[in-house]
Design a protein that fits this description.
Elements (H helix, E strand, L loop, with lengths): L9 E4 L6 H8 L2 H7 L8 H13 L8 E6 L5 E11 L4 E8 L8 H15 L5 E7 L3 H9 L3 E4 L5 E3 L2 E3 L1 E7 H7 L6
Parallel strand pairs: 4-5
Antiparallel strand pairs: 1-2, 2-3, 3-4, 5-9, 6-9, 7-8
């Protein structure tokens, strides 16, 4: 018996209270924070413990949820993936992903994204996924293009951090575009 949520390399899963330390470690790298979001003020270990405990019991709000990404080779938490702004009327949602620096370029992100999109398109009936990536993050832009995302816009000097403004790349993929590359399996 297999799980929809288990790939060859990763298993997206609910966040557990003991995951706090791995998330704190990932946030300890400024480059990691900036590649996915922005630089945040330091948080205490107790703050991370409280956050992880809260996430462990949080119920999804519609189709908006946050998952930990666990590597199958060793059961180590390597990152997180989440959905945002899910709108059942329009069938659109946005998602974000972060993989810790020591775990990048191993196929974890691409597999977690494919599992998430398979769920949102094939099980939840969404039609389009949107992603927002800082233009300087060429590896993430290339990853998304390789998965079939198309660039839909590039707001110039849209976000401010590290002392200057940065362009943002808006990417999207539709359910049919995804299914062409990753056919939905039989039940």
């Amino acid at each position: 018996m297999n799980s929809f949520w288990t790939g060859e390399r990763v298993r997206p899963r609910g966040i557990e209270p003991e995951d706090w330390r791995a998330f704190m470690e990932m946030d300890g790298y400024s480059d990691h924070q900036r590649s996915g979001d922005m630089l945040h003020p330091p948080r205490s270990a107790e703050g991370y413990r409280a956050w992880a405990a809260e996430q462990a019991v949080a119920k999804p709000t519609g189709d908006c949820f946050r998952l930990a990404i666990e590597a199958l080779d060793g059961g180590v938490l390597v990152g997180g993936i989440s959905t945002h702004d899910a709108d059942p009327r329009t069938g659109r949602f946005t998602y974000g992903i972060g993989v810790g620096g020591g775990h990048q370029r191993r196929g974890y992100a691409s597999e977690a994204i494919v599992l998430l999109l398979g769920f949102m398109f094939g099980e939840r009936r969404h039609h389009k996924c949107k992603a927002r990536i800082y233009a300087y993050n060429g590896a993430s832009v290339a990853l998304h293009r390789g998965l079939g995302f198309a660039e839909e816009g590039r707001p110039r000097e849209h976000e401010f951090f590290a002392g200057r403004h940065h362009d943002l790349v808006l990417l999207g993929i539709t359910a049919p575009e995804f299914a062409e590359r990753h056919p939905f399996g039989e039940p």
